[in-house]
Amino acid sequence: MKGVYFATSIIVLLTRVKMFIAEVIPAFRGLAMKIIPRAN
């Protein structure tokens, strides 16, 4: 049972990290475009 709980925890953690990164990267990109207008 501990193995199932551990595996579920890892999957949830990885999913949250992916969602966090997906939200943060566009925000930094927008910030960079304001600071350095020609940055790609």
Describe the structure.
The protein has 40 residues and is an all-alpha fold. The chain has one domain (1-40). It is built from one helix and no strands. The chain has one helix spanning 2-35.
Domain unit count: 1
Helix content: over 70%
Major β-sheet annotation: none
Structural class: mainly alpha
Q: Identify the quaternary structure here.
A: single chain
The gyration radius over C-alpha positions equals 17 Å
Number of strands: 0
Q: How many angstroms does the end-to-end distance come to?
A: 48 Å
Residue fraction in strands: under 5%
* Overall 3D form: rod-shaped
Order of helices and strands: H
Pick out its properties.
single chain; 40 residues; mainly alpha
Outline the fold blueprint.
Blueprint: H1 2-35
Write a concise synopsis of the structure shown:
The protein has 1 helix and no strands. With 40 residues, the protein is an all-alpha fold.
